[in-house]
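User: Hi! I'm working on a homework problem where we have to compare a predicted structure to a textbook description. Could you give me the structure for the chain below?
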Amino acid sequence: MFVNLHLTESFSRLGGVESLIRQILLYDPLSSAAGILDTNSGGMDRAIALRKHRFSSAVSVRRVSKSYRFSAKTVIWHNFAGLMMCGAVIPCDQSILFLHTNSTDVFDLLPERIPYLHGILTSGDDLKKEIHARIPNVPLPVISLQYPLPPAVKRGPNRVIGEPIVIGYSGRLEMSQKKVLRLEEFCRALNTAGIHFNLEILGSGSAEKSLRKILKPWRASFLGQCSTGEVMEIYGKWDYSVCCSDYETGPLSILEGMVAGALPVYPEIPSQAAKVLHELEYPRYTRGDMKAAAELILKLEQEGKGEKIRTAFSGALEHRTPMKFVEDMNQALAVIAQERRQVVIPPLPHGFKEYWPFMLRSRLPEKGGYLK
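Assistant: Happy to help. Predicted structure tokens:
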């Protein structure tokens, strides 16, 4: 029997939730994870892939779940993943939602899903406040957690005057939320500002093909997927890390970049990173204005305070260790357990769609998404 079983869309992709799951598996021997879209464990201990082949469906994932005879004290559904799909076939004492996003569909789903949940964990205080604001008198505990950050890496030698600055983007290559096609406008603005740069892109996603095409004039380097250790080494070689999103709750890529010394080019949107930047009086750019993003880099380059800023980031984030996060998470689960809230088991889904392969079902509109 597992103590904590984390259900997630994937633990192998490059993204904030995936990085968090990997850190939990490394530092919490009480936790295991199951990925709905993963076809293998990626060499990670206590990680189970529920998708056996490209034609897997919801029915086959439930069949695999039953074959493992999952039983856990606590099941933690990350961003609802698996709650309705597998909730009826994975017995547990505690059913917990861990929310990492404040996308609009979350607040459409949440009232319907509350009867199946003992409690909610959120990525940061802002998301917790938003839940209470949108659902007054929410009838279950909501506890915020701060993302853990890996140890700092040793940065490479300082950039020689005249060398191009290295700017990186890390995360899912998607237009929804991430708005990665804005990188074209960003590169044009950097050129106009006379900034000599190299652009590196870490990650994959549905917009990758389009991104490769529009960034061809700037010879952007696409680095693909990397392990957590490799990612931190890459961040340690970046001068800046850019975020183009319209909304975030972490984002872990920016926070990890800050630990590694990559100065963030971050929009004025609420998140865990924004809170740290505000406290340190670090500048941000107007959301969606990539010209302003390029001007922010120009301003920071002219001021020449990079090393002083990196020292400030290190001091502000050094306490956010994976072990501290595991301790806080298990303490939060214990607090929720004391509530002894009564819940119902999610109904077993029925219908033809349950037999459709994910690669087909993912192309069709479905409230909340087919994985939830």
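For your comparison, note the following. Residues 19 and 40 are 16 Å apart (CA to CA). DSSP finds 14 helices and twelve strands in the chain. Good luck with the assignment!
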